[in-house]
What we know:
By secondary structure, the chain is of the alpha+beta class. It has three helices and five strands. Keywords: Chaperone, Coiled coil.
Amino acid sequence: xxxGLQNDHKALMKQVEEALHQLHAREKxxxxxxxxEALAEAMSQNQSLPQAFAKVNAVTPGSPASISGLQVDxxxxxxxxxxxxxxxxxxxxxxxxxxxxxxPLSVTVIRSGKKVHMGLTPKRWAGKGLLG
Length: 132
């Protein structure tokens, strides 16, 4: 009968509606959990980055620093043997540079929240200093 079919249809639609609500609730929970995990991972990565002791404010084009890939705003965490534990002033860097002319130095910087390693060889060039 039409009334029976209409009641069956209503009951079936109610079941579909409940199932959709449950599905969306699970998806919402999963999304919130994924976001929380991503945030926790991002925070733990930031905490694992070493602390910088200097920031690059200029790099002359064509200089040894430029050729090595050093960029403005790089935060230096290791420059040869100099790191946060033994850095006192920029003279420490100058001393390492003078004693390393023509020999590659290991340099580690933080760039855009990521640790970047590079080799930098202090040497005489057309500009001032051994780095530029």
